[in-house]
Amino acid sequence: MTRIIADLTISADGYAAGHDQTEERPFGNDGGDGSGGRLHAWMFDTPDENRAEIEQLGAATAFIMGRNMFGPVRGAWTRPWNGWWGDNPPFHAPVFVLTHHQRDPQPMDGGTTFHFVTGGIESALTQARAAAGTGDVLIHGGATTINQYLAAGLIDELRLHVVPFTLGAGTRLFHDVPALQFDQVTARAATGVTHLTYRARP
Predict the structure, then answer these.
(1) In this predicted model, what pLDDT tens digit does every residue of 123-137 receive, in sequence order?
(2) pLDDT at residue 30 in the model
(3) Rounded Cα gap, residues 189 and 163, in angstroms
């Protein structure tokens, strides 16, 4: 059975990105170099220790992401651009990008095709479910997109990677999301990150 999974790295105070995202600083003012190095160091500095969580990120057969996760408004939508993901994105599957801007599907090397969805979160989910077949759909972020799916009660499983620093401002998980209840499935502390998995209660 297809699961709808949200997976996100956040600071200890719940932010997935700082303010002022640009092409050069995809995670904005994150207190580091802005490239996501501080938030996502656990993926690159200690990959062997976090192998299971990294492999989970690529295990879905369809993905959903928000417009800013594909690329900032300035740049990605005013000229042809492949987003932040390079010529061979890591998804190797259909990716459905939520946006208000019409754009033709964008096939990439390695089997990834970005599909730009203007019909909202449910339209994107319907298309992703169909593309996933019997596999899972992974909502890859950012926090604003995941918040919309949480508020609509459409997420089955929430995976969080919590890094031990605070941002104080930016795009925050659970902003404007009503009270929810989860069951904790797993919790694992690693170097510089704690991995948490929650299952949404019906």
Answers:
(1) 999 999 999 999 999
(2) 59
(3) 10
Q: Which two tokens stand for residue 179?
A: 């009270």
CATH class of the domain whose range is 4-200:
alpha beta
Quote the DSSP letter at residue 101: S
* Tokens standing for residue 96: 């459905």
Mean pLDDT of the chain: 89
Label the pairing between strands 62-66 and 137-139: parallel
- Hunting for tokens 């699961």 — which residue is that? 3
The overall longest dimension of the chain from CA atoms, in Å, is 44
Which of the two residues, 153 and 202, has the higher pLDDT score?
Answer: 153
From start to end of the chain, where are the E strands?
Answer: 4-11, 15-17, 62-66, 94-98, 106-107, 113-117, 137-139, 157-163, 171-172, 182-190, 193-200
Assigned token pair, 69: 């996760």
In this prediction, what percent of the chain has a pLDDT beyond 70? Answer: 86
Q: Which residue in 7, 1, 21 sits closest to 135, CA to CA?
A: 1
Check pLDDT > 80 for residue 77: no
**What SS3 state is found at 169?**
coil
* C-alpha span between 100 and 107 (Å, rounded): 20
0.85 surpassed by pTM:
yes
How far does Cα 173 stand from its chain's mean position? 11
Q: What is the DSSP letter of 109?
A: G
If one counts every other C-beta atom within 10 angstroms of the C-beta of residue 166, the result is 12
Domain ranges of the chain: 4-200
